[in-house]
Amino acid sequence: MFTDKIEAKxxxxxxxxxxDLLGRVLTxxxxxxxxxxxxxxxxxxxxxxxxxxxxxxxxxxxxxxxHFRKIARVAGDIGVDVSFVxxxxxxxxxxxxxxxxxxxxxxxxxxxxLIDRVGRYQLEEFYNxxxxxxxxxxxxxxxxxxxxxEYGANKTAEIxxxxxxxxxxxxKALDFWYVTALxxxxxAESKRSERFRHWGLKRRTNAQAREDYIxxxxxxxxxxxxxxxxxxxxxxYL
Amino acid sequence: xxxxxxxEKLDEHLKEVVHALHGAVSWAMSHQKEPDLVDKAIHxxxxxxxxxxxGKVDDWVN
Lengths: 238, 62
Fold this sequence. Notes:
The complex is a heterodimer. Chain A is an all-alpha fold.
């Protein structure tokens, strides 16, 4: 296991596998950061239920754009240009969760509750990682992601409080995003994931991170009075 | 290794975009009793975000 701490100036001296994996993870992370606004700005900014919600959608998008900027800067400093993801069509995003379009307020709320939470897990993988410039940008990004998760959870609860008809809509959104969230952690037996851990670029296996997520989120779903979906139904990556 | 040519310019451009969006949102949040101001801020955010969603990076950095 690689335990050194690397600065940008050391990058060129690193093993080609390390350079490749770091470039890859930064590219995917930047794609996920900008992938969020591409999912919801078009339909949710005009359609959010109140003006304050519209403003919060705009602020959330601004924060995700800033997260993209910070990751893109870390990537750029080692010669990896991730700017192409700014114009990548949604259907071509690296991660399945970002390949569609959010068109309902229920989906937007549950997306924050579940998918931004996966985003937090992905970022936490880099805590104490071997690449110091990446670790340095984490605290502010994670703090803002926590705000997005809380807003999503609060809005989900708020919609549910309106009654049975809305509960059905929220459950439908939850059924979709829960499975999507679990798939975001990737294959349990991923060999690449092992190499990320070997080089100190991730902390947990995909299966460990997914299990931690399930342990955290299932009780929260139950507290909302919703049914926890079958964790295997419709999954693409087991 | 040298950073890609547009990294710094892109970083600066996006900083300005994020600053403008936060400015518009903060202004509107503190003027919630004035609907016209709030509407204008939302419209400004829609315009700014529309440009970012188009993703024409070359237009921003050249």
